[in-house]
Amino acid sequence: MQSLAALVEPDDAAIAVAMRARISERLLLDAAELFRISKLTNQAKLEALLKVFDATVTADAYVKELLDLPFRAYVTTNYDDLIETTVAAVSKQHLLSYRNTSTDLKAASYSKKRYVVHLHGATQVPELIVLSRSDYAPLDSMEEYKLYLRHLFRDFTVLFVGYSFRDPDINLFLDYLRKYQGLPGDGPAIALVPASDHEMQTRLRETGIKPVPVEVDGKDIRLWEALRKVAEEVRRRCGGQIVEAVVSEREQSLVVHSLAAVYAYYRVGRDQPVRDTVIGGIALSIISQLADKERRASVEAIERRLAQVLFLTSSSAQEFLGDALQRLEAAQIVVREDRQVRLLQYDEKPLKTDFQFLIRRLRDRAQVRYNVAIPPDVDLEAFLVQMLLGRSLGIAHSVVRQRPIEVVDLDDALGQAFAAAIGQSAPGWRGPLFAATKSLLSAPTGDEASTLASLARMVMMTDVVINAPTLKSFSGFADVAKIFLDANVLMPALLPNHPRQTAYSEILASARERGARVIASTAFVNEVASHRYGALQAYKLGGFDDRATFTRYVQLFGSDGINAFLGAYAGWLTRGGEGSFANFLREFAPYENEAALTRFLQERGIEVVDFAFDRDIEGGRIARWEAALRDQYRDQDNPKPRTLIWHEARQVEALLVSMDQRSPAWFVTADRKLIRAVGAIVEQGHLLPPTLLQVLLTPLQVGAYLDLASDRNVDWAGYSSLFWTRAFREFNEAFAEYAVDRVLREYEAALTMSIPAILEACKTELAKKGAFVNEPDESGEEARLKQFRLLEQFEPRFYELMAQEKRKRGLL
User: Fold this and answer.
1) What would the mean pLDDT of 334-351 be, rounded to a whole number?
2) pTM for the structure as a whole
């Protein structure tokens, strides 16, 4: 600070004198404030900060030892890059470096790599440096800063190291924690402090940080001895591996303990926004836990518990409870009596009833489809709870942190849920249970879909509120101006009876309600028209006039895994529709060219635009995006037509232009390969900005955002299957699931242990015929038709292998 005063003196001697006076009184924050209001120009102030703080700093042996620990992240208020350079030198690892911007803090909260966050800025961007109290104003109003710290203190154990806790920068941070974060005080935040400094220990406890007193001599040797013990414990527990970022057990426990009350309040049937339902349900859960025999609990006790559970300050807990009680009283669930709350009615049965319904359907599927009875003592409720928790909490994190939703590997999810709820054994009914669960989650009946969607939605939204209890809105969706649609969203939205039509059309309706423009580029309109023509050709080439053949084709690939027009036709037939495919198209897709389709879209409130970019942009930026996407698709071993990749590159450019113009826009796509490709490009370097991933959204994310922003209750029945959308399935995976389903349907469960060997034999013979190799010029439907024909020819061989296995086991 003395150096800054010296740099101010030539231009503003009075301020320099005042700064030195404050420094002598150790009022360093006041001195920093004087520097900020000095007569130096803004550029001169930035240059002064760089000159003072951008000095080379080296780490001593103790610091190197500390930074060699396998911590998940390092968070610092220092401006230098000591942590990054030391970790690189000691462990040969590159740390991702984030600063105090909303974009960086969002990225840090879901980073899968080790990272460092500079909470008070870094010298590389001096305008972000937090030096004085006034510099903290932007952070006070930044929701992402609050959310990141909530994530940090709730999901990790935070160890404060290297602070005297009297430095101005850490004092600013502690003031912020007291103001916005209600830490419990007994961990997970801990600090090593001198045993003799009782005043500091008291202050840390008041902030919610647990002080760990350490005897410190003049050279701080004992402090480092204590840190060595921490290091030994860290290495013992994690074996030198980096601590992975996962959903914390504490978070899961909070959701589970709140869910019954949230669901009970939801089932009361009040037509209110989902956020209000969850807030009321969480408060109801705590009231029921604290209520005495007369069903009363004090307001103070409820507020204290809310503050502990949700990491809220006292004032935030009061506001949260006040909002909740107002709604609970209106529903005649509780009544306020002075400074107490009395519970009038509370029934946890709705949650239990709906889980029992799903369990019956799961048992029925195993029995009817596969002739297997799941033992009655198996805890299928715990199994389903684990499945719902694992998926819904992952989606909630994506919603709160505005990151892409990861695809679900159903086989892995089933295995993990089974191990957690039932055990590590592999009984004979495990295979039929897994197959029945896949069927229930991926292809539910109407009432099953409604129940699954309600449960998953309440789990997800409960976790969203637990993660962000004070957040009123998420940046981006509250004022989004434009929503661009990919063809893979546009087609199902337009086609009645497609399995995703209900969900996608709800997204369009909600977007229009909020005044957003819904837009399709001419490139994707062309793609829709091409798919319609391709569906007619596939129907003819596949011989699908034969209803049994078409049914087998849909069974193999799924109605949402084939051409959208064929998938909608399959749904129409399932619901009792009659007639040819051509008649279906004339009724529900009456457009044979792009001009007719454009009119059809405009009549339904969807704009069609042709992106007009300069030739230099087309040959420069867009060409770079196209080349980068092509490289990623090559790495994914997933060839795409060059024209389609070019369309995607132009859409990326349109999003970047909207971001530059500060005109909020989204691109909604169900193409997870595109999202993975863009994510990989962002992660590799600086070609595309991380903010692009916050506007490249899946339909499920958009549905969640619009639900949170809505002032009414939203029907999520159509979203049920979207919760369990899987990654792209190669034909060998589709074939394996099809074959397993046929085996379990038509043969004894005793054969399930032989299925892997039989499938391997089948796949080997199919591979020789080229079933698993697509030619670069083959479209998706052409490849599927080729594979289907081979399977049709091969099916007799499949039954022959099954008969051989039955004879071996004496079942024939």
Assistant:
1) 90
2) 0.74
